[in-house]
Every structure is written in C-alpha cells, then in structure tokens.
Write a structure and sequence with these properties.
158 residues; alpha+beta; four-stranded mixed sheet; 4 helices; 27% helix; 18% strand; globular
C-alpha cells in the first residue's frame, strides 16, 4: 500500500482521492479545533503557502479522538478553520485515528511506522512515492527545522 491508494471524503462530503498528490511530499496531520495545539494551524497554513509551488501538500484530518476536542460538524470545522486561521489547505471528513473505528489510512500509517497516534496534531511525512518517511510527535511544530529541511530536500534525522 501507498498513501496514494486511499480515498477519503472532504469535509463537504466529496470524494478526495489521495492519488492526486502523487509526486508530491505530503505532511499529514490529525487536527482539532479545541486543542491547546490548535494554533499550529497558523504554521500549517504558512507551510502550505510557502511550499505549494515546490510539490508539497498539507492535508488535515479532523479527529475527535482525544479529549473530544473536535466536536463540531463538518460545516463548523470548515468555518472555524477558514475564519480563525485562514486555512486553505485541504481538510477531510472527521475520522478516527485510534481505536476500533480507526480509518484505514491511519491504520496503514501507524502499522507502517510502528507509531500510534498519541494526540491531536501528530504529523506523518509522506514522500513523493507515497511512502511514510516518519511520524513526528504532536508537540513538534510544523515549522520545526526537521520538517522544513525535509520539505526542502528530503532529509530527516532518523
């Protein structure tokens, strides 16, 4: 399996085929609107704007698995993200990243890395070939030098 083999719905319910990111690096992040880490949306949007011309994409996966911190409807999530943080990068439907109802994409991400999602804003780096490169803790900021270096040239500290 590769990242590009998955399809999920966008917040508006439309099919969102991840194969559209083939050939791009993707930063995958499970997001939540009422988390102490929610201000990371600002940095994620900054990265999205800065790197979009460099074959990089940011994709947010709203998740209510941790502390009930994403309780809103799809419309409420979209409105909050766009009006509060100016988010323009794609957001998917609300999914589960842990537990019995874990989305197949997150099952693949966690099985491939051996890293379970521990909280909102955990990051996964996906290379241009659809392979998982690394999982990064929620506390690692999107503009952390390791992420920015990887987005620029593909190197990470393993």
């Amino acid at each position: 399996m590769k990242f590009y083999d998955f399809t999920i719905a966008r917040l508006n319910g439309e099919a969102f085929d991840l194969s559209q990111f083939s050939g791009k690096k993707v930063l995958v992040v499970n997001v939540a609107s009422e988390c102490g880490l929610t201000p990371q949306y600002t940095e994620l949007e900054h990265l999205s704007e800065e790197f979009t011309s460099k074959n990089v994409a940011i994709v947010g996966f709203p998740c209510n698995d941790f502390g009930g911190q994403e309780p809103g409807s799809a419309e409420e999530i979209q409105t909050f993200c766009s009006t509060t943080y100016g988010v323009t990068f794609p957001l998917t439907e609300k999914i589960h990243t842990v537990g019995e109802h874990m989305h197949p994409l997150y099952h693949w991400l966690t099985e491939t890395t051996g890293e379970q999602v521990t909280w909102n804003f955990q990051k996964f780096l996906i290379d241009e070939n659809g392979n998982v490169v690394k999982s990064l803790a929620p506390s690692v900021l999107p503009t952390d030098p390791e992420i920015v270096t990887w987005l620029n040239d593909g190197n990470t500290n393993n």
